[in-house]
Design brief:
Elements: H1 14-64, H2 67-72, E1 89-96, E2 100-111, E3 113-124
Antiparallel strand pairs: 1-2, 2-3
Length: about 130
């Protein structure tokens, strides 16, 4: 019994080949979109991590500054940083709670939609 013959007229029709190519192209396009959106998510997470690092650094600077010096230097100006997309701002707000200062550092940036990271800490007089 022969399984394959060179003289056989059986094979795939043009419609079957076109349908197979259509299905294959849909699968490849879906995979391409997956990688595109994954890359966008990686970039967005990189910006969020950079913003978190900047906010943490600013909080640590405030914790190392004497209580009275923080009160003297209020209000803090808005700052800009280089390792985030253009239009970013770093805002520091201090609220006196009577013996404690509540420091809030907010890093915001624009990347199609607005994003922000905020850290809050309490600073006591020594």
């Amino acid at each position: 019994m022969k399984l394959f013959s060179l003289n056989s007229e059986s094979g795939f029709s043009l419609i079957e080949v076109l349908i197979a190519l259509l299905i294959l192209s849909i699968v490849i396009a879906g995979g391409g979109l997956f990688f595109f959106y994954a890359r966008c998510a990686i970039v967005r997470e990189g910006h969020r991590r950079a913003a978190l690092q900047i906010a943490t650094q600013k909080i640590e600077e405030l914790k190392g500054t004497p209580y009275e010096k923080i009160l003297e230097s209020m209000p803090f100006p808005k700052e800009k940083v280089d390792n985030l997309p253009p239009g970013n701002t770093v805002t520091t707000q201090i609220e006196d709670l009577g013996g404690y200062l509540e420091a809030t550092v907010t890093v915001s940036w624009q990347d199609n939609i607005p994003y922000k990271v905020s850290l809050v800490t309490l600073i006591a007089s020594r």
